[in-house]
Amino acid sequence: MGANLRVDRVRTEADRRAFLSFPYRLYRSDPNWIPRLWPEQMSWLRRQHDFFELGDAEWYIARRKHEVVGTIGVAVDHHWNKHLLRKWGVFGFLEFVQEPAIFAALAEQALTWLQARGMTHMMGPQSFGPNDFPGFLVRRFDLLASLFQGYSLPYYVQFAEQAGWQKYQDSIAYRFICPRDSSGASLLPPSLERIAARVGQNPRYSVRQAEKRCFEREAHHILRLYNRGLGTLPRFAPLTEGEFRTFAEDLMPVLDEEMTLFALADGQEVGFALAIPNLAEAFHKSGGLRYPWNYAQLWWSSRHLKSVSFKILVMDPDYWTRGIEVLMYQRLAEVVKRRGYEWVDFSLTGDDNPQTNKIAAHYGLEEYKRYRTFQVEV
Predict the structure, then answer these.
(1) 5-171: which CATH architecture?
(2) Which range, 66-75, 322-331, 342-351, has the best average confidence (pLDDT)?
(3) Among residues 207, 309, 332, which one has the least CA distance to residue 258?
(4) Which pLDDT tens digit goes with each residue over 106-132?
(5) Complete DSSP assignment for 272-285
(6) Residue 228 gets which letter from DSSP?
(7) Where is 6: in which H helix or E strand?
């Protein structure tokens, strides 16, 4: 380790504040960085997250003399390992100034921690849940990220590749620019409108909005569909009820019933779609809620959002290829057009998800962000 450079475990409240404050200094001149929410990040560092019912984690801070120059977190998700029959750890919360020695020291600390716990590989970045800001940004750095997407400096991925780290997976974000004309034409391509018209004539199939007042019922349906619909992917580990409940409760304040939809077959929920007003635009202007006055900035900015983020559509595999999902696309497109959103984000999907990527390519959606996660032997 270089002279005057040390990597210490985060122990005190002052350490936690220094850890979370570092990115504000690192990105202070970058107009496209969006701070992660300070209260949420602090809950991780204080071990108040439900993750700790299933996993272990530690955080480290690199200093040169008294100046913070890097941070990293490292964790073991026992549920994920048990399901995938692995002994893998994950790293996240990685930020560092552009010096190879600092990157190497942080990585070495994370690998040492995992080695002591019998892990064979390290994967990341991922901070730390399965959908928590996965990957280093590969392209594009000139556009703001959307909700639940991360941001990193170009040299992050370069240093990982130079260190010989291997690609684990890419995550892709697509976008659709809404036409500016005010005609009554649908936002959906004619081919999808024809499918929606055909499927909509079948009395067996319908779409309903979620009801926030019936949280327990809706959460049960969503968790079942999420785990069943994505269970065919090779690297998928099902969400536990605790993990899902934390995620759902965090989303409750921003869920929009008009854009939280279920597809029904014979009255039973067989599909789920979720779109959320793209609050990343507001987070960008409200400092990650680091200070009390940021909440007023968030409230004001959230009233003037230009985009919506389409986060997920899952179907029970028994109902694939029937076109029922197109009814949900149609309903969401109607809401987007009526509310005057300028563009729609579709994110994130793995590069190993053939169905979603095939649809995106077929309908000409623009790939506007790509993130890369890496794996390295411990």
Answers:
(1) 3-Layer(aba) Sandwich (3.40)
(2) 66-75
(3) 332
(4) 999 999 999 999 999 999 999 887 677
(5) EEEEEE-THHHHHH
(6) H
(7) strand 5-9
Residues in contact with 26: Cβ distance below 8 Å, sequence separation at least 6, in sequence order: 95, 97, 153
Query: What is the CATH architecture of 179-341?
Result: 3-Layer(aba) Sandwich (3.40)
Characterize 257-283 residue by residue with b for buried, 16 or more Cβ atoms within 10 angstroms of its Cβ, and e for exposed.
eebbbbbbbeeebbbbbbbbbbbbbbb
Beta bridge partners of 91: 74
Instruction: Render pLDDT for 290-321 as a digit per residue (tens, 0 to 9).
Output: 999 999 999 999 988 999 999 888 899 999 88
Phi, psi of 24 (to 5 degrees): -60, -35
Q: Based on the number of CB atoms within 10 Å of its own CB, is 198 exposed (0-12), middle (13-18) or buried (19 or more)?
A: exposed
Tell me the pLDDT band of 184, cut-offs 50, 70 and 90.
low
In the chain, ranges of CATH 3.40.630.30 domains: 5-171, 179-341
Amino acid residing at 289: L
